[in-house]
Amino acid sequence: MGASDPEVMTDAAENGERLSGNTPQPAPGFEVRAPADGSVIASLPTQGSEDVRAAVGRLRRNQPAWEGLGPSGRGHWLGRMRDWLFDNHDRVASLLQRETGKPWQEAALEIPTAIDVIEYYRKRAKEFLADSHPRPHSLLTASKRLTITCRPYSVVGVICPWNFPILIALADAAPALLAGAAVAIKPSELTPLATREIVRGWREDLGAPGVLEVLTGTAATGAALVDEADYVQFTGSTDTGRKIAQRAAEQLIPYSLELGGKDAMIVLADADLERAANGAVWGGMANCGQACTSVERVYVEAPVHDEFVALVAERVRGLRHGAGRPSFDADVGALSSESQLAIVERHVSEALAQGARALVGGRRADLPGACFEPTVLVDVEQSMSCMREETFGPTLPVMKVKDVEEAIRLANDSSYGLSASIWTRDRARGEHLARRLEVGAVNVNDIFTNIFTFPVPQAGWKDSGVGARLGGAHGIRKYCRPQAITATRLTPRSELPWYPYTARKGRLALHLTRFLLARDWRRRLGRRRR
Length: 530
Ligand code: NAD
Hints:
The structure is a single chain. By secondary structure, this protein is α/β, with parallel strands linked by helices. Helices cover about 45% and strands about 20% of the residues. The strands form six sheets. It has a seven-stranded mixed β-sheet, sandwiched between helices. The chain has a six-stranded mixed β-sheet with strand order 6-5-4-7-8-19, sandwiched between helices. A two-stranded antiparallel ribbon has the order 1-2. The longest helix is centred in the N-terminal third of the chain and has 26 residues, at about 105-130. The N and C termini lie far apart (about 90 Å). The protein binds nicotinamide-adenine-dinucleotide (NAD). Nicotinamide-adenine-dinucleotide (NAD) binds near residues 162, 223, 226 and 292.
């Protein structure tokens, strides 16, 4: 589609009217721009608190019937979403590519990756949500049948960033829907188009139940959603995460926060350097370095530092830089926006001014749009902004360390604690060292694996988050409140602790509890033996 595609503009206007609901005045809109060339792709309405309240009200009304479908009935509709995504793949991936500036391969693969999450939870929802029946813990409750059942929150608000618009929206929305909740997605104002199209497909093409809505707008729209939802699943910056936590606390609603990161890569002297260099380059440059788990800083043991750096520099020099074309001819695309580019420029220029060297890149690329050259920095110091703040760009600052102890100390010297990687031929040692890192996930000789391995949780420590995304049963149960159902099997007319209180019943209750809890019979037996 062209930069001023009339289809998108018209559709945006129509959708704006439809989604604006009963707002008396048309909501002020915002423009979505293509980072690859800066052109305006669409204008969308900013949905205000009235729109958000109306949308959440619709979801709340539709949710009980959705919950009533059970895991299989809900799985049917998620299966239809899977098929729709495959059938509309190229069209949706094109929208995604235009609004993000990703290379085609990354835009194209985001959809199957999201489908992988849908399928993981669709196939297991029944098992993960099944009632459990714990055994009574004492004689006093022995006659009770105990049940713990998972009852979904009515409306889950999913607030998303701009780096993986489809993957993050669906990786959170699909388990919530399968849990039986209704979902309102608030995409980033920079990248709302692909998500909006998927929700349109769900409602209009599939005729699926009205339990999925998209709310377009800026921070105020997200804040309004926090005010209305029963649970908030947020992915974005640490600063916004704090604001959401405060607002959710006012509403007394639970939340899960997936926030920023400053992932360290530790390369030990015995590492397979070819694999480590390839991993570093992909880990640092994929999605133009704009993944929460991107390699943001590399610590290399002194004996292999120079060889590792040479391998990395050679590979980064070979990357094909370009954005916006729907073909497999680019490895690194554009940054999401000019403001993101400004952060990357600042980190690199500050590092250079403080004595670092750029072996490759180091400046804005000579391309249209928000493009920064894939960059390798050496002679960096831990105190530099490129080693301390989240850069979120195509940069790899590499630092020589004396030994593994220094590497671990520096890796832990961060306010973030999302994930990290360790590279060594001794896998057992790598797994052992992983336990000394203050992060929610460690990949040994690998990059991003935990993100694509849904049985393990994606949980940020420290300033990187609260709660966890995915992680087997947790990933769907987190959208549910546990409900305890206790049913008594024996039904005498009255029970010992019930009214009336009498001295006889009271003493009996005390003796009984002492007998059971203090295990007096054992103590007395022991005394007799002595
Ligand atoms: P952001 O915090 O600026 O915005 C994220 C979303 O929150 C957007 O939809 C935005 O409109 C909304 N928002 C902003 N202020 C709000 C408020 N006060 N109340 C409610 N909603 C509000 O983040 P971003 O710049 O879009 O995304 C980049 C960040 O996301 C990076 O820090 C990155 O590390 C992080 N991220 C984390 C993960 C993870 O899983 N840990 C994954 C991807 C991205």
